[in-house]
Amino acid sequence: MKRKLLAVAVTVICLSMMAYGTLAYFTAEDTAHNVITSGEIDIELQEWADAEKTTPFPEDEVSGVMPGTEVTKIVEVKNTGANDAYIRVKVEKEFVLSEGVEGETDSGLMKIDFDETYWMLGEDGYYYYKTALEPGAVTEPLFASVNFDTAMGNIYQNSTAKVDVTAYAVQVANNGDSVMDAKGWPEA
């Protein structure tokens, strides 16, 4: 009887080891720890108030501007990141009338001479720098001045003219053959 019990116990142990081995053969688990670091894309919008590019354009305001005058405002973008970048810029113009004055304003009375050699206007209203910008490089100026038309009437007295400039960048690597093919632009 002891022999039969021993034989049954050995058989049960063998069968359970086979079942465990079969289960281990069909299941496995492992963990990997991978670190992937993306490239750095960073830009700096530069606005200058003089042709020598020594005086930053004031954030507050430029006062005393009269119709028929020109204000120096040089706009360029510097790649401060570690990788090549495609650049696009949005420019928005607006007149804010002085308090108590009502009427329709015409932002077309603010003339900006955009560069078309190095920049192109996209169908979406953004200006695109035609070539990739290397780290440390600066674009050619998008524009260098803002002109105020002589047709500006009395409604514009003591008003504020705003030229808001916003720059965006995306990586060049694996992102299309040109700036117009690039994907992943930040939302405006």
Strand order of the largest sheet: 1-2-7-4
**Order of H and E elements:** HEEEEEEEE
Q: Tell me the β content.
A: 25-35%
Helix content: 10-25%
> How many separate helices?
1
What is the mean predicted local confidence, pLDDT? 85
Estimated structural class: alpha+beta
| pLDDT < 50 runs, ≥5 residues | none
- Describe the largest sheet: 4 strands, antiparallel
Distance between the termini: 86 Å
Query: Outline, from the CA principal axes?
Result: elongated
Describe this structure in words.
This protein is an alpha+beta fold and 188 residues long. It is 13% helix and 29% strand. The protein is built from 1 helix and 8 strands, in the order H-E-E-E-E-E-E-E-E. The protein has one helix at 2-26; strands spanning 43-48, 70-79, 85-96, 110-112, 119-121, 127-129, 143-148, 160-171. The longest helix has 25 residues, at 2-26. It is elongated. It starts with a helix and ends in a 17-residue tail after the last strand.
